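User: My instructor asked us to take a sequence, write out its structure as tokens, and then describe one feature of it. I'm not sure where to start. Here is the sequence I was given:
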Amino acid sequence: MAIGPSSQEIRVLVVDDHPMLREGVAAVLALQPDMVLIGEAENGAEAVARHRELRPDVTLMDLQMPGMSGLEAIEAIRAEFPAARIVVLTTYAGDVQALRALKAGATGYLLKSTLRRELLDTIRNVHAGRRHLHPEIAHEIAVHAIDEALSEREIHVLRLVAAGRANKQIAWDLSLSEDTVKAHLKSIFAKLDVADRTHAVTVAARRGVIEI
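Assistant: Let's start with the prediction itself. The structure tokens for your sequence are:
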């Protein structure tokens, strides 16, 4: 007679649009006597459905995925299952993105570059009810804790700048005057502590304010 997984095992769901990462996580978990991979998903919508079906103890969630993002999936899962334990897997150490994920309900935030060293301890800690935040990310959050956040309009302007739009085009797209666009850019530069458009886009992308 087949014997099912032990009730002591931590049941893990992994969500990522890259098959190689999912396979790598599966291989690591297969070697652990106290963990079992119960399912996989490759986008946010599938993650919500699989979580509802499988009720994992810990979900490993990528943020950048086609369709429903990981952030949206975290919000949806936590809305339905408030006690869900979700660990973000990402390549980005940006403080803004990390804060969004934590506010959405993530209980852990892990850089993919540190998976080999930190994955297993993170899963165990989060399963035990503790939070896990990579030190580099915690430092970034602390550094920018008192910074004034960009407004939604400023973020929209910055996205258009990142897309290569000139001020006149941005003004047309947003039904604003060029002077208003310039005022927004001046405010963006001050808040991000940069001197020009290129640097603004670079810093905003690194911190997770925008995606490029």
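For the description part of your assignment, you could build on this observation: Strands lie at 10-15, 35-41, 58-62, 86-90, 108-111, 132-133. Try explaining in your own words what that tells you about the chain.
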